[in-house]
TrEMBL record:
GO terms for biological process: stress response to cadmium ion; stress response to copper ion. Pfam families: UVR. The keyword Mitochondrion does not apply. Keywords: Coiled coil. It comes from Niallia alba. One of its GO terms (molecular function) is cobalt ion binding. Residues 138-173 form the UVR domain. This is UVR domain-containing protein. Residues 134-161 form a coiled coil. PROSITE patterns: UVR.
């Protein structure tokens, strides 16, 4: 499909705009999208950028998306100890400076990452076979302990006793796995 603005280049950006119930479709090439960015402003931001588009699509909380520079100037800006990147710089660039930035900006990044990954923020990838069984049992025990704490807090002691017994069983299984190498 060709760009509806210039009719010269292939369209790479396709979106619909709904104004007072009237839907208008846009098919733009990269060049026209940059030139006419003011048409596609999102909440008064400075034009169409990948970050703004992503933030709009994900409907990120205003605390993350619409923080003004004045907010950061009033407070001491949060800055990574290793690469000296500030959160404000991250918002402009869209990339973190080093692995330590994840720890430094954890509080600000967690809501965004949760929304981006549908609430799943724990890595659940493949496990090497040689440690797989051992690791899986440990993970199950960890989950059961969290469940046990919740049951005790809710005063569901009968269910908690069942989970406690299951934890003991898994711990025995883990011990035999480690000793026997099964």
């Amino acid at each position: 499909m060709m760009c509806t603005e210039c009719n010269q280049r292939p369209a790479t950006l396709h979106f619909s705009k709904n104004i007072n119930g009237k839907v208008t479709e846009f098919h733009l090439c990269e060049h026209c999208a940059k030139e006419n960015g003011d048409i596609f402003m999102i909440n008064g931001s400075s034009g169409l950028s990948l970050n703004n588009l992503l933030a709009g699509l994900l409907n990120i909380e205003p605390s993350f998306q619409h923080i003004t520079e004045d907010t950061y100037k009033r407070q001491k800006p949060l800055q990574c100890k290793d690469c000296q990147m500030t959160f404000s710089q991250f918002r402009k660039i869209g990339k973190l400076g080093c692995p330590h930035c994840y720890d430094t900006f954890k509080e600000q990044l967690l809501p965004f990452i949760k929304r981006l990954h549908g609430g799943n923020i724990e890595h659940k990838g493949k496990i090497p076979e040689r440690i797989g069984g051992h690791f899986l049992i440990k993970k199950e025990i960890e989950q059961l302990r969290l469940e046990l704490k919740e049951l005790i807090n809710n005063e569901e002691f009968e269910k908690a006793a069942v989970i406690r017994d299951e934890i003991k069983s898994k711990e025995k299984q883990l011990t035999s796995f480690i000793e026997g190498g099964e």
